[in-house]
Amino acid sequence: MNLKVGDKVIVIAGKDKGKEGKIIAKKGEKVFVEGVNIVKKHLKPNGQDQNGGIIDKEAAIHVSNVMIIDPKTKKRTRISKEINKDGNKVRISSKSKNKLD
């Protein structure tokens, strides 16, 4: 998977198609995007939170349904990888050829 926590992505499929946000977490082949795919979660009262209730929370989205946003062109792009002079792999935007890291 070429996406990292903190990358700015756009949703390309599903009920939130067209929304943008930052990746806040990854879990396997799924990502959690800030402000996207909001679901209601019912919480019981417990020791830390005496009030319980219904909260809004981000749910996971499959990585195939998001694409990274190129920082230069502000459009969605694919990611390619290249090896730099030091021998390290770096992520490169396929459209603008800019480094993403």
Describe the structure.
With 101 residues, the protein is mainly β. It is built from no helices and 10 strands. The strands form 3 sheets. The chain has a 6-stranded antiparallel β-sheet with strand order 6-3-2-1-7-8, with no helix packed on it. A two-stranded antiparallel sheet has the order 4-5. It has a two-stranded antiparallel ribbon with strand order 9-10. It starts with 7 loop residues before the first strand and ends in an 8-residue tail after the last strand.
Task: Please outline the helices and strands.
Blueprint: E1 8-11, E2 20-27, E3 30-33, E4 38-43, E5 53-58, E6 61-62, E7 66-69, E8 76-77, E9 79-83, E10 89-93
Antiparallel strand pairs: 1-2, 1-7, 2-3, 3-6, 4-5, 7-8, 9-10
For the structure shown, list the relevant keywords.
elongated, 0% helix, 101 residues, mainly beta, 6-stranded antiparallel β-sheet, single chain
Could you give a quick summary of the protein structure above?
The chain is mostly beta strands and 101 residues long.
Strand residue percentage: over 45%
Question: How many angstroms does the end-to-end distance come to?
Answer: 15 Å
Broad structural category: mainly beta
Question: How many β strands by DSSP?
Answer: 10
Spans where pLDDT lies below 50 across 5 or more residues: none
Order of helices and strands: EEEEEEEEEE
* Total of DSSP H or I helical runs spanning 4+ residues: 0
Main sheet: strand order: 6-3-2-1-7-8
Tertiary shape: elongated
Helix content: under 10%
What oligomeric arrangement do these chains adopt?
single chain
Major sheet characteristics:
6 strands, antiparallel
Mean pLDDT: 91
Gyration radius, to the nearest Å?
A: 17 Å
